[in-house]
Amino acid sequence: MPRVDVLRHPATSSWSVLPDLGAALAATSGGSDPEGTALVAVVGADDALSDTGARTALAALGVTADDVLATFEPSTSAGALTTIPLAPGAHAVRRVLLVGVDDGSDAAWRSAGAAIGRATRGRSRVLHAVAGDAGGQALVAYVEAAVLASWSSPRWTRKGPTVVTHPASEAVVTGTEEAATVAAAVARARAQLLARGLSMTPSNTKNPAWLARQARAVAKQSHLDVRVWDERQLAREGFGGLIAVGSGSATPPRLVQLDHVPDGATAATPRVVLVGKGITFDTGGLQVKPVDGMVGMKTDMSGAAIVLAVVAACHELGVAVRVTGLLALAENAVDGASYRPGDVVTQYGGRTVEIGNTDAEGRIVLADALAYADAALDPTVLVDVATLTGAARIALGRTIAPVFATDAALGAALEAAGATTGETLWPMPLAQTYRRALDSDVADVAHIAPGVGGGAVTAALFLREFVGDRLWAHLDIAGTGRSDVDAGTSAKGATGFGTRLLLRWLEEMA
């Protein structure tokens, strides 16, 4: 049997829907492994003893609900788990997991799904008897969270990336006929896992050429058109930013373009261009980072991984607008050819930039891709995603990302999508007061504004120089793109923050 690529095909449960819980239990009794099967039900904030979902699930097993609920007194706090073991051989399952959903908000359902996804890793079958209590968006939040939390980062062995902790083999949602809703939730979460796996790949494997090859493979399986520029083509066509940042590396830069074209698209179909920062490792360049700051820099290409994952999911989710992804890929390394502070770099389109700090390389590669999108692709909307500034992390921490937008309605739409998926965005100003700090005596614009503060703002203002008059938004995920713990919907490492947000926004655009 050929080995499955666990990066391009992240490990997830096989999800399905059965309207009737009794039928699902009968199927389990008829051949599935009761020892490896769990039944999940929920308890709400009012009174767990009167919770209809838990009662129905227990009654279907032939268990006296009042006795069980009174004995175990399950917590109703969001995500709190109560495990009820059942006698072997007496029931279709050996364990019932009661999970609290507190006030029944989408956030509470997301916490519940995350707790269940993590608790059921390694099981053969999980029956999610939750749909009778979760309506609409709550069910989506639950399923997405369960998929995300069931995943753990691969381990790199002599055989390559290997899954160590597997999610449940099969997951069945009962009490609903909304198979399409469940399938879409799984697809969004699986896209986020694709972004995570690529971001967690060690950088001695993951250089720009390797990531471009992964993009080609993903494009083939996802019905996308793809184009890749190598270093000679980049130099010939004037992508000076990518060439400058990659000049100190033994592995040259790449630019990748991926195109989703929906069925029936015409010239009038809106085109969204997504741009992702893809620094496959960031030493800081000649202005080298301290050791602590360099740890984790393999995830500095998360923006590119997210954009790749989003465009790849568009066909499966039926996104009705044209979507182009640009992956700006380079390694920021150190040798005698490295770009220097004080250099003047000519970006795509001819605009010159004075380099102030070689560790602010992300905005340089993004500038090339944004300028190309503006000049060559005629986007209706232009959005970039990047682990860009420490200032964003300092300002908003690790759970909220700043969004900068040239149009209030665009920013609000992205914020609303984030509220739906639990990926919170906070609007930040493109404060013109800071713009003069980017003036340069030797070039069209300076690429950093030392000594004025507002580092996330000045970075966004720099990027705005390259988008022309386009509707444009910038997501700085430097804080939210990485997690130090395995908790909630995140595994330790790259989070893929923004993947589901962008997909929901695109799905709602048509």
Query: Helicity level, as a percent range?
Result: 25-40%
Calculate the terminal CA-CA distance, rounded to whole Å: 41 Å
> What is the 3D form?
elongated
CATH class of the largest domain: Alpha Beta
Under CATH, the topology of the largest domain can be stated as Aminopeptidase
> How many DSSP helices?
16
Largest sheet: 8 strands, mixed
CATH architecture of the largest domain: 3-Layer(aba) Sandwich
Low-confidence stretches: none
Keywords: Aminopeptidase, Hydrolase, Protease
InterPro entries: Leucine_aapep/pepB, Macro_dom-like, Peptidase_M17_C
Protein name: Probable cytosol aminopeptidase
Domain Cytosol aminopeptidase: 357-364
Could you characterize what this model shows?
The chain is of the alpha/beta class and 510 residues long. 35% of the residues lie in helices and 21% in strands. It folds into two domains: 14-177, 3-Layer(aba) Sandwich (Leucine Aminopeptidase, subunit E, domain 1), CATH 3.40.220; 211-507, Aminopeptidase. It contains 16 helices and 21 strands. α11 packs parallel to α16 (499-507). The chain starts with 13 loop residues before the first strand and ends with a helix. The mean pLDDT is 93.
Give the SSE layout.
Blueprint lengths: L13 E5 L2 H9 L7 E7 L8 H9 L4 H8 L8 E5 L9 E6 L5 H14 L5 E4 L8 H14 L4 E3 L2 E3 L7 E5 L4 H22 L7 H14 L3 E5 L1 H7 L2 H7 L7 E7 L10 E12 L8 H4 L7 H16 L4 E11 L11 E3 L5 E3 L7 H16 L3 E6 L3 H7 L3 E6 L2 H14 L2 E4 L17 E2 L8 H10 L6 E6 L5 E2 L9 E2 L4 H9 L3
Parallel strand pairs: 1-8, 2-4, 2-5, 5-8, 11-12, 11-15, 14-18, 15-19, 16-17
Antiparallel strand pairs: 3-4, 6-7, 9-10, 10-12, 13-14, 16-19, 20-21
Helix pairs in contact: 4-5, 5-6, 6-11, 6-16, 9-12, 11-16, 14-16
